[in-house]
Amino acid sequence: MHLHAIISSAACCIAGALAIFADEAYHIDYHRALVGFPTQDATFFHQPYAGSKASLVYTLSNKLILAAVNPKDGATVWRQALSHPPNITEGFLRAGEEQDTVVSAVGGEVTAWSTSDGRFVWKTKFPDTIVKDVEILELEGGRTSREAKDAIILLSGGEHVIKRLDGKTGAVKWTYEDISGDSPFQVSTSATGIHYISLHSTMLGGVKIKVTSLDLVTGQKLDQYTLSSDNEVISPECVLFAGANSASPLLAWTDKAHTVLKVNIIGTKSVSTFNAPRKGAEEVQKIVLHAPRRINSVSHFLVHYQTASTHSAEVYHVDLKKSVISKAYSLPELTGNGAFTTSTTDANVYFTRITAEEMIVVSSASHGILGRWPFKTSISKDQTFPVHGVSEVVVRSDSAQAVRSAVLFSDGQWVLVRNGELVWTRPELLAGALTAVWADLPEQEALAQELAIEGHENILSAYVHRVKRHIRDLEHLPAWLENLPIRILANFGGKTPSTSTTEIQQDSFGFHKLVIIATEANRLVALDAGSAGRLIWNIDLPKLAPGFTFENPTLSASHGYVEVRDSGLESPLLINTTTGGLVSLQDTTTTQNNLQEGQMLVSFDLIDGELKGFLDKKASSPIWSFLPPNGERIVGITARPIEDRVASIGKVLGDRRVLYKYLNPNLVLVTTVLDATRIASVYLLDSASGNLLHAATHSNVDITRQIPSALSENWFSYSFTLDSTTELSSRGYQLVVTELYESAVPNDRGPLGAAANYSSVQPSSALGDAAKPFVISQTYHTAEEISHMTVTQTRQGITSRELLVALPETNSIVGIPRYVIDPRRPIGRDPTALEVGEGLTKYTPVLQFDPKWYLTHKMEVFGVKKIITSPALLESTSLVFAYGLDVFGTRVTPSFAFDVLGKGFNKLQMLATVAALGVSVLFVAPLVRRKQINSLWQIP
Amino acid sequence: MPSQPPPLPQWVLDLNSTPSPKPKPTAIPDPPGFTAALSAKQRSQSSKNAPQAAARKPPTSEEMDTLKLKKAWELAIAPAKQLPMNAIGMYMTGSTLQIFSIFMVFTLFKTPITAILSLQRTFAPFTTPGTSTRLLPAKLVFVVMNLLMLGLGLWKVNQMGLLPTTRSDWLAWESERTWAERAVPKDWL
Lengths: 940, 189
Known about the structure:
- The complex is a heterodimer.
- Chain A is mainly beta.
- In chain A, 11% of the residues lie in helices and 42% in strands.
- In chain A, helix 2 runs antiparallel to helix 3.
- The longest helix of chain A is centred in the C-terminal third of the chain and has 31 residues, at 907-937.
- Chain B has a domain at 61-162.
- Chain B has 6 helices and 2 strands.
- Chain B has helices at residues 10-16, 40-49, 61-93, 99-117, 119-123, 136-159; strands at residues 178-179, 181-185.
- The A-B interface holds A 1-6, 554, 556, 565, 593-596, 598-605, 613-614, 617, 637, 639, 642, 646, 648-650, 652-653, 655-658, 663-666, 668, 686-689, 746-747, 752, 755-762 and B 95-97, 159-162, 166-169, 171-172, 174-189.
- Chain A: Residues 1-19 form the signal peptide.
- Chain A: This is ER membrane protein complex subunit 1.
- Chain A: Residues 712-937 form the ER membrane protein complex subunit 1 C-terminal domain.
């Protein structure tokens, strides 16, 4: 008893001191602060304050994350996740020239943020409306104002209104209501006034563009004219460009086939018509108009024509006095996709053309190339191409000195290229991670396979096999010896040996595992979890399965390859985990299920709100089905992980008796809600037989919030939010932890006794009917909402577990030690000596998240959707990977890193001690010898 | 002429001529309670004078056996005398694992076992043809006493939780049930 008491109390002491050490932070963990794909209209270089030498890249991404990125190293200077209704995907971001705020608009909220640190400045809410456009008023009565510049917003709701917001406070200065019923398109500001562009649908199906001029100061309607665009424009997508703060705001549109380009200078009624270049049979697929945004820049613009295989561009000049638009020159056609960016220096406008191979800078005035930089390292692989970007150009004496462009490539990487050199890469495609899975390195799996062979053979042949394997391993010896000095030196230097970019380092601790991620952009990415989430490969899934779009892919890792499945896909795609290449089914070994011999496989699935179990893979009639009572709706299903090693089948009590754990591999936890009465229930099922083992119901639950749950070993936990509208005394977030035992009585194995086999489908009559577990449960209040939870996994399950929870409010991930949420904590009394020996403390209803539990320490991990864990080769360590918006990975040691030397271990000191001892032995040896001889000669 | 040996030093003379044990009769009586040491002659006289104190004849073999048996019994009981002290010591050291209590427990095990093993040697001085059978109970008691000591050690070890007497000590040999079915979500297949 006391020995156990000592060990368990020692374990508690260790666990109490458990935290991330300062010297391990940023070494064992890695974090990519992602933003998502930057959008073309809402990405720009901007000085954080007037007169600043350096500028930052500001972007509003497709995930509606507002971020400032340092163009020097690609680090996120600040980020803000903009709150938005779930159906809104569009946002606006504008910055006035020499302003220290940026204005964002998403949904019905217009917010200003400080440019240098991302602090909140003001916010104006317009409920039940959606912002359609935001512009910053650069000119006030013909001159730029030094004050905070006002914003013009276009709101679409019940009726469409234009409002002018004060740049300092966000207060509304005036409102103009459009009662015509036309669909609002955009607002544009110019030196003379504000132009409101709306689309008026005609009877014949075309769309007429209506331009309304408003007074700057009062918002009164000054003028209105309609452009007869109904021959070409049939949908808002056909309008290419409108305004954007140039001195001469433009309005450009095309027809559906992209054959003609029509441009109008806003404020005049004349329309210039240009024909799209037609070379060969290829049709123009896309026309993009690039115009400078600066108010004082010359009125030149570039039109980018993209066909399926080539791209070209034409540059036009606007004569403001005559209101004539003329073509200046055209840029030659190049194969592949390209991107054009506009940058201005004083009044001059420069266009940067970025292709997959090079970047070319031209002036808007003439077609002479000012600078050309071929990409030094191949930035784009596998026919990726630039999608769009932003540039800054330095031009001196008619030649471009330097250009830097932040370009989004089609493989989802956001890249900054400076003079053809790759400066940084941000894997923004990971922000749209849908699902992820752990994959072992193939060598590791090969060894595991060999060991399995040896385990199943008789001793002699296994021994022969092992000797053969060791002889085969000798071929690695020269390389190993070669690397030995480097490794020893690296060990003493305290540095890990650097790995080359392509090679995946195999390590003896098993930290180098791959995480395979499927993203929203239908790409499959592999990261090396052992070397700070380095990207190993990045492939395009539709290329492997032509003509198929993945909607909800599922991944599963097998020996050396990953299976990608989707509901519409006939046979799964098999992809090599190390190379990302396609593997044919013949090359793979047969998939091994985790079935033991003689085990019957039951699969279950949620079909039409009902959980059904099937004996066969092919959907025949179900052997059981579970429909929650009272019309409850199933919101979540959590099954025990396939690999869930349990070291001990019982829990040793303080008096050394044993509570036997109810270890059923087929446990599944179903969470349901009843919308009408705000009730949430959990049902624990035996998924082989469909038997209900345990049920719990909670009333007054906010059913709009998530109910995350986790199931492992013999316990499960779930969390929910109590409804804030009820009159209950208890509100907030609750975490429920439940343990299952075979019997309430210690030393008793319950109704099944010592039976070694059990079938829940066909229970033997002698054992009674289905054995139900003994359940104990405790509930804790948490200070924050939990959006996702999972449990750490280790190789043998000896290490105690941690419940990893994602906290969206503080953007962090917390590892709650298992002993803290033990449901056997004594309630209302201090623990007895025996309970203290077990490590139980008195129950407290509120679970405070100890700052030491925070795995993310200083990092802010945005938008965690899921956390996955995997055992390392070290028993003490579990690998953790979280994805969603950001990507975060770390290693956790819930019972301390007991099987590996810490960083604090001084190897030099140890060696010095050994050497000193050796030297001292050399000195002492003659003395001792002399003494022994003398003692022989002395009379006793 | 042979030289005259030097005169003997005073201390040699003193040594050779010890003063007579019988001091010269003086008027001063001996202090009360002082008995002068008797010379051998006086002793023989006094023994003759005492009729009850006859000349001691050597003990018979029966008497020797009885004596030896008595001595053997004393030896047999001896461990019991240490028992209370040991018990108090064991109790006082508590049930935690410390270097002192481990040493004490070690001696508690070592002493009885070595004592039992060297049983014949311990009782060899008392073994005669006459006592060999009568010595058996004494030996038995000796063994029992040592076993008691051993029992104390066992109790102590049990207190320290080192004896595998409970279910939890054998938990590692118990195995998880095998389930005849394995159910997994369909996505995992």
